[in-house]
Design brief:
The chain is an alpha/beta fold. The chain is 36% helix and 15% strand. It has five helices and seven strands. The chain has a seven-stranded parallel beta sheet, with helices on both faces. The radius of gyration is 16 Å and the shape is globular. The protein starts with a strand and ends in an 8-residue tail after the last strand. Bound molecules: NADPH dihydro-nicotinamide-adenine-dinucleotide phosphate.
Length: 226
């Protein structure tokens, strides 16, 4: 039987690239969009099961987990994220934009991972949470994009606590940096293509399925400092 992957946030960008890369390698792919009437490029990939979820809404995340309660995945990737109000700083951002950014990038990903944990194959399964190199507190010496950095640093903290709390399940739990990638978020000047990022991330996940190591890795397999 083919291996199976669930990708949360796959209508476009890196999530869509991951869905293509796994499908091309013969995996059974389930991938989510927010709006079923806008599947993005997903409906062009044959054999993909399309689901819906908005990770910023607890009820939506819980409903997805209930619909998938009887399914077991070898890999779950929580890719969904947003850039947020990038021109803003802590002293200028409005409360609503700040809350939406942290709901989407920090709380939403770990909350849906928690709801879905029963769907991940114990002892051999992998959960990947898409963070960013910009979430590294140790590397945050340059300033800029501070709100986005903080949201991904919070996600990294949640992810480490989540991994520690579920150690008995034997899952490999990864914080993944996709590179600076040419997408709507990364922009046209990004040096990494979606295809190269997705292929690299897939290799990192395959490695983790074998060596069972948690960690903070970029798409080339390099370890990043927390
Ligand atoms: P895009 O903006 O191109 O795509 C974002 C994806 O996330 C879309 O499919 C979008 O769905 C989905 N999404 C956003 N918010 C939600 C939500 N609340 N619930 C469900 N799905 C949601 O981003 P990228 O592909 O560039 O980025 C993917 C991930 O990689 C993000 O977590 C990002 O932070 C991270 N990353 C990206 C980098 C880059 O250079 N591109 C660098 C480092 C990290 P919809 O179409 O409905 O909006």
């Amino acid at each position: 039987m083919a291996e199976s992957v669930l990708i949360i946030g796959a209508s476009r960008g890196i999530g869509l690239g991951l869905a293509k890369a796994f499908a091309e390698r013969g995996w059974q792919v389930t991938a989510t969009v927010r709006d079923r009437s806008k599947p993005g490029g997903l409906d062009k990939i044959s054999g993909v099961t399309i689901e819906t979820v908005d990770i910023a809404e607890a009820a939506s995340a819980r409903a997805l987990a209930e619909r998938l309660a009887d399914v077991t995945f070898d890999v779950v990737i929580v890719n969904a994220g947003m850039g947020g109000p990038r021109g803003e700083k802590p002293e200028t951002v409005n409360d609503a934009d700040f809350c939406q950014l942290f709901l989407t990038n920090a709380l939403g990903p770990v909350r849906i991972a928690e709801f879905l944990i029963g769907c991940v194959r114990p002892q051999t399964g992998v959960i990947g949470l898409m963070t960013s190199q910009l979430g590294s507190v140790e590397q945050a010496s340059a300033g800029g994009v501070e709100l986005y950095r903080a949201s991904k640093a919070a996600l990294n903290s949640f992810t480490r606590s989540f991994a520690a709390r579920h150690r008995e399940l034997g899952l490999a739990i990864l914080s993944l940096h996709p590179g600076w990638v040419k997408t709507d978020m990364g922009g046209p000047n990004a040096p990494v293509t979606v295809e190269d990022s997705a292929a690299g991330l897939l290799a990192v996940i395959e490695r983790a399925r074998k060596d069972r190591q948690d960690g903070y890795f970029d798409y080339r397999g390099e370890t990043l400092p927390w």
